[in-house]
Design brief:
Elements (H helix, E strand, L loop, with lengths): L1 H22 L4 H8 L3 H14 L22 H16 L11 H4 L3 H17 L7 H13 L3 E5 L6 E5 L9 H4 L7
Antiparallel strand pairs: 1-2
The structure holds zinc ion.
Length: 184
């Protein structure tokens, strides 16, 4: 009995997480990687979900985001990335130290829940943010691997910034990089 109880609760957690990912408009391949559910089950879940949803939930197709340059394309996105990365780190969705084995260590139901929690708090803080849930998943994975992106400190004030692993320039935060206001 115990074994089937465990299996039942594990399955329930997977389904709950898949629903949360669907709500955040995650792609099927992302949901599959994080929950282990088959594409067929995810499709069925989506169909039953949209009949009950109070808003239109689009399904995105094609590749998930995979370009780290996205996070540095403007000062605004850089700043938002730093806030999001802070929350991912705070909630434990990103390990304190990057690990080479992130591909197998990161996508799991437990980490997926932490990731959703961090993203939901982030969207409450910055409802107008352009960083999607898929980009958040990509950011968490890249930070966990530490191959392309790392969490670091601003060279002037020490506040958290997301840097490329081998930055070309000394990294400064949004505040320190902006020119000072004109003096009266
Ligand atoms: Zn700074």
């Amino acid at each position: 009995m115990r074994i089937s109880d465990d299996r039942y609760s594990r399955e329930r957690l997977c389904l709950q997480l898949a629903l949360r990912f669907l709500e955040h408009e995650a792609r099927t391949q992302t949901i599959r990687a994080w929950t282990g559910l088959s594409d067929d089950r995810i499709r069925k879940l989506y169909r039953s979900y949209i009949t009950r949803a109070r808003r239109y939930v689009p399904r995105h197709r094609g590749k998930s985001p995979h370009q780290v340059a996205y996070f540095t394309r403007s000062l605004r996105v850089q700043q938002e990335t730093a806030w999001l990365a802070s929350l991912l780190s705070l909630f434990g969705a990103v390990p304190a130290q990057p690990t080479a084995d992130a591909a197998s260590a990161l996508p799991s139901v437990a980490r997926g829940e932490l990731l959703c929690h961090a993203f939901e708090v982030y969207r409450e803080m910055i409802p107008s943010s352009q960083i999607s849930f898929e980009h958040t998943v990509f950011l968490a994975t890249a930070l966990s691997r530490g191959e392309q992106l790392r969490l670091g400190g601003c060279s002037e004030c020490g506040s958290l910034v997301v840097t490329e692993r081998f930055p070309i320039r000394v990294k400064r935060c949004h505040q320190c990089a902006s020119p000072p206001p004109p003096r009266c």
